[in-house]
Amino acid sequence: NGNAGFQQVLERLESDPVCQRLSLKSFLILPFQRITRLKLLLQNILKRTRPGSEEEVQATQAYDALEKLIKDCNENVQRMKSTEELIYLSQKIEFECKIFPLISQSRRLVKRGELTALDFNNPSPKWKVTTRPIYLHLFNDCLLLSRPKE
Questions:
Q1: Which residues form the DH domain (predicted)?
Q2: Measured distance CA(23)–CA(13) in Å, rounded
């Protein structure tokens, strides 16, 4: 998004009739769509093969291998999404000191959300309560609290 030249080239390519006005994302997702179609095809082949035949054994092996491939693809997609979230978060969060490396191969963002912190400033009979937003970022290995820059 930050590279105007790349955006121009991408728009020119996507508008080319050879690409049938499909976006880059659609080309990137095509292999995954084909894999899931292959799974459906193998399911139909398994329904039509004779039980106990050599064809059933081969189709079952192919189906199991395809299941493993789909599972691996889904895990890699989730890993990439998690890494993208960490990169985005590291660009938004500014630490006072750079001791804590936010991006790590093993770190995953589990949950995030905004809470309201209550500050009781005066312990007199008339409590003065002020609120401020606090953001929680729960990772698989730590909990990070942050607040918006004032």
A1: 1-76
A2: 9
Distance separating alpha carbons of residues 46 and 97, to the nearest angstrom: 59
Question: How many CB atoms are closer than 10 A to CB 121?
Answer: 9
Residue 50 per-residue DSSP state: P
Based on the number of CB atoms within 10 Å of its own CB, is 56 exposed (0-12), middle (13-18) or buried (19 or more)?
middle
CB-based contacts of 21-28 (< 8 A; 24+ apart in sequence): none
**What single-letter amino acid sits at 141?**
D
Residue 115 phi, psi (nearest 5): -125, 165
Question: Using alpha carbons only, what angle is made at residue 93 by residues 109 and 108, rounded to the nearest 5 degrees?
Answer: 10
What element of type H or E holds 82? helix 54-92
Quick one: which H or E segment has residue 110? strand 109-120
Pick the CATH number of 4-91 from 3.30.70.100, 3.40.50.620, 3.90.550.10, 1.20.900.10: 1.20.900.10
